[in-house]
Amino acid sequence: MTDTVIRGTNDADSLAGSDRDETILGAGGDDTLDGGGGNDVVSGQRGDDQLRGGEGDDLIRGGPGAD
């Protein structure tokens, strides 16, 4: 688990991490999530999401919807 958490909203969000280790949570909406560098956790949650880990050792979690 990482110390930095980036949270989306119930709308469609475009969220990107940095070169650090982060957890990126999409919430609702059809989100685009990109972990960037670092060892990240990228979680789409609800909606039809586009998920990218980026560089590093990442954990990608989909959710309900077409991720």
What does this protein structure show overall?
It is found in: Secreted. One of its GO terms (molecular function) is calcium ion binding. The chain is globular and about 25 Å long. The N and C termini lie far apart (22 Å). By secondary structure, it is mostly beta strands. The model has no long low-confidence stretch (mean pLDDT 94). It is 0% helix and 34% strand. The chain has one domain (4-61). The protein has strands at residues 4-7, 14-16, 22-25, 32-34, 41-43, 50-52, 59-61. The strands form 2 sheets. It has a 4-stranded parallel sheet, with no helix packed on it. A 3-stranded parallel sheet has the order 2-4-6, with no helix packed on it. It contains no helices and 7 strands.
Brief rundown of the structure:
The chain has strands at about 5, 15, 20-25, 30-35, 40-45, 50, 60. By secondary structure, the protein is an all-beta fold. GO terms for molecular function: calcium ion binding.
Largest sheet: 4 strands, parallel
Q: What's the count of strands?
A: 7
Q: What fraction of residues sit in β-strands? A: 25-35%
Number of helices: 0
* Cα separation of the termini: 22 Å
Strand order of the largest sheet: 1-3-5-7
Instruction: Count the domains.
Output: 1
Essential attributes:
mainly beta; three-stranded parallel β-sheet; 7 strands
Fold blueprint:
Elements: E1 4-7, E2 14-16, E3 22-25, E4 32-34, E5 41-43, E6 50-52, E7 59-61
Parallel strand pairs: 1-3, 2-4, 3-5, 4-6, 5-7
